[in-house]
Each structure stands twice: as structure tokens, then as C-alpha cells.
Amino acid sequence: MLDYHVHVVAHGEYEYTREWVERYLEAARAQGIEELGLVEHDEFAHRIDRGLLAGLRQRPGLSPQVRAGLECEYLPGREEEIRRLGRELDCDFLIGSVHFLDGWPFDHPDHVHGWDLRDVDEVYAAYYRMVAAAATSRLFDVIGHLDLVKIWGHRPRRRSELEHVRPLLGVLRQAGTAVEINTAGLRKPVGEIYPAQVLLEALFEASVPVTLASDAHRPDDVGADLGAAVVAARRAGYRRVMGFVGRRARERVL
Ligand SMILES: [Zn+2]
Ligand SMILES: [Zn+2]
Q: I need a labelling partner for 253 at 20 to 30 A (CA). Which of 147, 181, 210, 241 fits?
């Protein structure tokens, strides 16, 4: 079992201290999670205690093995900044995510009214255009919460979600970018894993690799519902998931 998406400072409300990080490690250990990806949102990269993180990454034989990642906000024009951040932190992996469309944080509870002002199909199209650009940039090892746009339960009417995602499949395969099976959606109004089962099946058919992610923003959510993520992966056909060391993917049997 592995969990490649855990936030220590969350949205800035926690400090990156040994005591606090240790609670995440304990939660992982208690669930038999062997690889734990500590991933801050890139806007909080400066809050990471780099000395502490370096020490945690060098604990051979100790479980969980700590991997260092960043969840980067993809926006065209940020490419150089993202590359620099990844290098500076000597990341094992980078997650590329889209949480903003034209400056609108569509997944943020304080901005959910923005949906009333827009056409849902157009939001979906804009979202997936941005995700496609993130994958095409080849900056990332993993695309975060692939169908996050469904978070509040809005569904497209003119084109299905699969039709929105289909053009992405070749891009992901060619770029060698993995998609995470992220269980945070189960804790959101949509009540579904990201990505939906039908999308996961299309990803499998397109030979796009997957990794596992709780997207925990507190120790209690480390490993949350990863059993359901494994079931979803296996049902789609997957028998392997990816871990990452030094920006290289390493297969693990599921
Ligand atoms: Zn995210
Ligand atoms: Zn996250």
C-alpha cells in the first residue's frame, strides 16, 4: 500500500514540525502504508522544513519510506517556476493540478456560487483543456484528481465526461504521466473517487499508469479509503501502481 498525496501544512494552517509530521507517519504505519508522499501545495513550498524532510527521506528500512513531492498549480507561463521548485526541493515526484480557471477557484467552497454564473459544459471544456496543457507540458509525474471539476456534483450535458477526457488519453500515455486514484472526492459533495470508474477504465485501456492518493490534509485522513481506491483500480484492470523515487516511476504490485 502506498499514499502519494499527503499535505503536512494543509492550506497553511499547520506548521511543518517533527511532532506534526510524526503524526502522519504514525497514521501511515498503523495502516501498513509503506511509501508516503509528503506533498505540499507549491504556494506553501517555503513552509517545508527542508532539513527535517531530508532526514525523513533517509531512514532506510523504516516504514513508511518518505517521498518528497509538490502539488503544483498548473498555469501556462508557470513552467520555469515549477521546474525550479522541483529542482530546489530535489523532489521524487511532481503532481500537476488545476484548481483555477481564469482566476476562479472552482473547487473552493467560498467560490461555489461562481458555478451559477457559468455554463457547466463550458467549465468542463475549459477545465480539461487546462489539464491537457498540464500533461502536454511534461512537467509532471502525476496528474492530480483528474476529474476534480465534478467536486460539487455539476455534470456536463452536451458531452459526457468520458468524451471530455478521451482526447487526454493519448497525451498522458505519450508523456508517460500517471494519474492518481484520489479518494478525497469521497469526502466532498460529489461523493466519488477521482477519477470516476468509467474514466479509470478508459485510462487502463490507454495504458496510462496510476498511483494512489488520499489527499489527506490532516493525519486522520492519511490512507483514507485507499482500500476503495485499490478495488476501483483492480476493477478497471490494473495490477500495478506507481511509486516515484528521484523523478523515476517504480512499479509495485497491487
Ligand atoms: Zn489538489
Ligand atoms: Zn492535494
A: 147
Q: Could you give the residue ranges of the DSSP H alpha helices within the chain?
A: 18-30, 50-57, 79-88, 120-136, 161-175, 197-205, 226-236
CA of residue 157 to ligand 1 center, whole Å: 25
- Mean pLDDT in residue range 117-141: 97
Distance from the Cα of residue 162 to its chain's centroid? 19
- Starting from the CA of residue 146, give the closest ligand: 1
Ligand 1 centre to CA of 141 (Å) is 15
Ligand 1 centre to CA of 62 (Å) is: 28
Domain that holds residue 11: 2-253
- Please answer whether residues 146 and 184 qualify as being in contact, where contact means their C-beta atoms are separated by less than 8 angstroms: no
CATH of the domain at 12: 3.20.20.140
* Ligand 1 centroid, distance to 182 Cα (angstroms): 10
7 Cα to the center of ligand 2, angstroms: 7
pLDDT at res. 200: 98
Ligand showing the shortest atom-to-Cα distance for residue 10 = 2
Q: What is the residue-averaged pLDDT of the chain?
A: 97
The reported pLDDT for the residue numbered 60 is: 81
